[in-house]
Write a structure and sequence with these properties.
The chain has 137 residues and is an alpha+beta fold. It is built from four helices and six strands. α1 (3-20) packs antiparallel against α2.
Length: 137
């Protein structure tokens, strides 16, 4: 499997774990390091593998049923680092997420996830500053 497909697979694995509230799968997808980071919408930065897993456990235990849909539109890689920029759609709310992966013994694992509010983008392109301003009016 080529690198791009492995990164896509890892990204899909993450969102499957998220949708299924599967803490064991979350433990597998995250890189085990104090340098690993996560920024949930509205949260301060969570740093370190153990803290990140604890944050997901808290989210899973305290959130209603939902389905999150990931719509990737940019996937890049360089050597052992790859990232996916995608939209997350949760209950008709749109977020933009950045998922950064590191290749660890031939397995791609998350070293950073960050999501925040975003306007809905109808196509698979990037917004220009002027089109973004129009969507916010």
């Amino acid at each position: 499997m080529e690198k791009r497909n492995k990164i896509i697979f890892a990204n899909e694995f993450f969102y499957t774990a998220f949708n299924n509230k599967n803490l064991k799968a979350m433990e597998e997808i995250w890189y085990k390091s104090i340098e690993t980071t996560c920024v949930h919408p509205g949260w301060p930065i969570v740093r370190g593998y153990e803290n990140i897993i604890e944050s997901w456990d808290t989210i899973f235990k305290n959130s209603n049923n939902y389905t999150i849909k990931s719509e990737p539109y940019l996937i890049q890689s360089k050597k052992e680092i790859g990232y996916v920029i995608c939209h997350e759609v949760i209950n008709n709310q749109f977020l933009i997420a950045i998922n950064i992966f590191i290749e660890n013994q031939k397995v791609w694992q998350l070293i950073h996830h960050q999501a925040g509010a975003s306007p809905k983008i109808e196509d698979e392109g990037f917004l220009t500053a002027s089109s973004l301003f129009k969507t916010m009016q």
